[in-house]
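FORM 12-B: Structure-to-Sequence Request
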């Protein structure tokens, strides 16, 4: 061979299965390797006549071509798949996999069979079916050249083989080989092998999406990993994943197991020489967190800072591939500050420190945690400002700093966190305006910045955030109008703007928000009329407009909202009648219309609201009699207040059927005659006010003497 051909020669040759037995294949392979070696290194072999040499050459190619399918690999020698059919029966257990996954597996399998090799040929006997590529006891010198070591992986999946995947990588993080939802069959034996440089360190990781490993809940799956002639790992009884490092120059730490699945094969890791250094720094950071938050006084601190204890086993610490990826210490009694070294946890994905006594500021080094996805620091006593460095954490999906004492502005840099799904800063002392850059967070679903001192107008850019489902901006000092662009948020479910200084009208575009469930804008200065388009909102459950300056009438379209449960219009300037269509809202739980200028009778259709718990219409210009149908409201609780109106006639005895109400106020009307005697049977009644009417007599009873706390007659 030429020097170029020698440089690119394969480091090993692997034969795929055929009808020949494993022993025959091994002998044939040895003979072929010897002949090829003699061809490559003629100076090391006995000098043969030219004719004899060519006979050997032809014999070698005859063996390789006619007897067995040949597969060669060059360079770093990726692993070669081996399919060994088995007569092992598939177990008849319920399948958990999805149809789409099954289709994908079938497509992968058919593609691979068609493009790489022919369908595996059944072996001669059932005993051959489970044989690996080569026996683990075979000397590596028979397969690998000098300077190379042999890696063998033997695998028997459980009954849900589509949940399993594995990978093998070197110290540079390069994936030598891996199977992700491989086209293999449950309960059958498989093997892979490769010749790799003997002076490197390697990592092997096996994962199961369901979290029950490959043994022993659903089948007797197992794996074994051999390095040269030594078994370096084996098992099958794990949760979501299990890892092992082996080879030369590897750091000294134990195999790791994970309690959560990964979305794909692990990312490329740094050089193995850096592994130990990173792991040691992460351990030191955890120790500093323990010391700065009075770890000895935590409610639970099992295993922490013990020298002989792997820090991945400490309470609340989870690792993957040896690195800390989850820290769960909420409600553990942490009392102190977060150390600046927290930025060293560059592999951390989940940080839960909520519901503790953490104080001090949020360290700016938190921006160094590039892998962070969830950051929960809510319900602490943290002060200072929101660090602008959070804008560097591109993977951040969940950020909650609520219920602290943070001050300052909301940094504009939050607009750079494109993956952010939840942004919660509620119940702090923040001031300033909502930055327009917030409209750049296209994936944001929850925006919680209520209970602060924020001011200014609501940014129109909020209409660009099409993924929004929840907006909590209540209890600030926002002014101006509700932007019409808010009608573009077709996925919005809850919109809370109450307790601000907003003015203007309710945008008609709200009628376009077909998924809106809650609109709470009470205690503002909203004026104008109720848009009739609200009748188009079929998922509307809470319409709360209390204490504004809304005028006009109650639109009859309100009866079209079959899902409405809470309808609060009290303390406004509503006039006109109570529409009879209100009786069509069978799901209504609360109807508060008090303190307006309604001018009509109480419609008898109110009696159709069988689920009504609260009914308040006092302080209006309501006239006429009390409809007997009110007695049908058997679920009515709390108070029935019909005071300060112009009601006439007698009190219907049907009111005595309202056994769950605790207060009845009929005061300041023009009611006459006597109170019904059955009112004494209202066992839950604690408050009764019938003053300022024209009653001539009242029922007496021991019950009232014992249960009434207040009685004004």
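FORM 12-B RESPONSE
SEQUENCE OUT:
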């Amino acid at each position: 061979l030429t020097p170029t051909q020698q440089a690119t020669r394969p480091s090993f040759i692997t034969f795929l299965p055929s009808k020949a037995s494993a022993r025959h294949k091994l002998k044939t392979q040895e003979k072929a390797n010897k002949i090829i070696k003699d061809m490559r290194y003629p100076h090391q072999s006995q000098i043969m006549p030219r004719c004899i040499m060519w006979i050997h050459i032809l014999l070698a190619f005859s063996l390789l071509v006619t007897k067995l399918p040949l597969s060669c690999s060059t360079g770093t020698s990726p692993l070669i798949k081996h399919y060994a059919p088995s007569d092992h029966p598939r177990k008849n257990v319920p399948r958990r996999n999805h149809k789409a996954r099954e289709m994908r597996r079938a497509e992968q399998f058919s593609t691979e069979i068609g493009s790489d090799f022919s369908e595996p040929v059944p072996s001669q006997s059932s005993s051959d079916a489970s044989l690996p590529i080569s026996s683990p006891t075979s000397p590596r010198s028979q397969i690998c050249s000098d300077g190379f070591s042999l890696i063998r992986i033997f695998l028997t999946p459980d009954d849900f083989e589509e949940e399993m995947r594995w990978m093998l990588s070197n110290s540079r993080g390069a994936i030598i080989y891996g199977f992700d939802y491989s086209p293999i069959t449950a309960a059958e034996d498989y093997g892979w092998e490769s010749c790799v440089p003997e002076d490197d360190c390697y990592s092997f990781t096996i994962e199961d999406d369901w979290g029950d490993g490959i043994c022993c809940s659903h089948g007797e799956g197992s794996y074994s990993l051999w390095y040269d002639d030594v078994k370096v790992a084996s098992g099958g009884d794990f949760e979501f994943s299990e890892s092992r490092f082996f080879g030369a120059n590897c750091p000294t730490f134990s195999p790791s197991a994970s309690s959560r699945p990964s979305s794909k094969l692990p990312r490329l890791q740094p050089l193995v020489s850096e592994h130990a250094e990173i792991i040691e720094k992460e351990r030191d950071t955890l120790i500093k967190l323990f010391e700065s938050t009075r770890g000895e006084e935590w409610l639970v601190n099992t295993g922490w800072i013990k020298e002989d204890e792997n820090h991945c086993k400490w309470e609340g610490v989870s690792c993957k591939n040896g690195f800390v990826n989850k820290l769960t210490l909420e409600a553990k009694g942490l009392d102190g500050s977060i150390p600046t070294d927290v930025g060293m946890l560059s592999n951390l994905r989940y940080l839960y420190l909520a519901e503790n006594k953490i104080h001090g500021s949020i360290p700016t080094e938190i921006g160094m945690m590039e892998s962070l996805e969830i950051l929960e620091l809510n319900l602490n006593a943290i002060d200072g400002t929101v660090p602008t460095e959070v804008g560097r954490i591109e993977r951040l999906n969940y950020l909650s700093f609520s219920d602290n004492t943070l001050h300052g502005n909301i940094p504009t840099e939050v607009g750079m966190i494109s993956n952010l799904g939840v942004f919660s800063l509620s119940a702090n002392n923040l001031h300033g305006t909502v930055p327009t850059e917030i409209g750049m967070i296209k994936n944001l679903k929850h925006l919680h910045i209520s209970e602060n001192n924020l001011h200014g107008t609501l940014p129109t850019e909020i209409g660009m955030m099409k993924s929004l489902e929840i907006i909590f901006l209540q209890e600030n000092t926002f002014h101006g109008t509700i932007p019409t662009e808010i009608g573009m948020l077709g996925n919005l479910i809850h919109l809370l703007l109450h307790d601000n200084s907003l003015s203007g009208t309710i945008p008609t575009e709200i009628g376009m928000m077909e998924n809106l469930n809650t609109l709470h804008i009470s205690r503002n200065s909203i004026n104008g009329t109720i848009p009739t388009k609200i009748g188009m909102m079929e998922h509307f459950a809470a319409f709360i407009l209390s204490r504004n300056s809304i005028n006009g009438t109650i639109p009859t379209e309100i009866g079209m909202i079959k899902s409405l449960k809470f309808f609060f219009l009290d303390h406004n300037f509503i006039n006109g009648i109570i529409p009879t269509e209100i009786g069509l809202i069978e799901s209504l739980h609360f109807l508060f219309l008090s303190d307006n200028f309604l001018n009509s009778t109480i419609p008898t259709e109110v009696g159709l609201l069988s689920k009504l718990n609260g009914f308040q219409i006092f302080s209006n210009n309501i006239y006429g009699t009390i409809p007997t149908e009110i007695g049908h409201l058997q679920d009515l609780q709390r108070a029935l207040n019909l005071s300060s109106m112009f009601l006439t006639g007698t009190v219907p005895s049907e009111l005595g059927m309202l056994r769950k109400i605790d207060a009845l106020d009929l005061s300041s009307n023009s009611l006459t005659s006597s109170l019904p005697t059955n009112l004494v049977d209202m066992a839950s009644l604690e408050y009764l006010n019938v003053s300022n009417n024209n009653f001539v007599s009242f029922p007496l009873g021991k019950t009232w003497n014992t249960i009434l706390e207040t009685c004004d007659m």
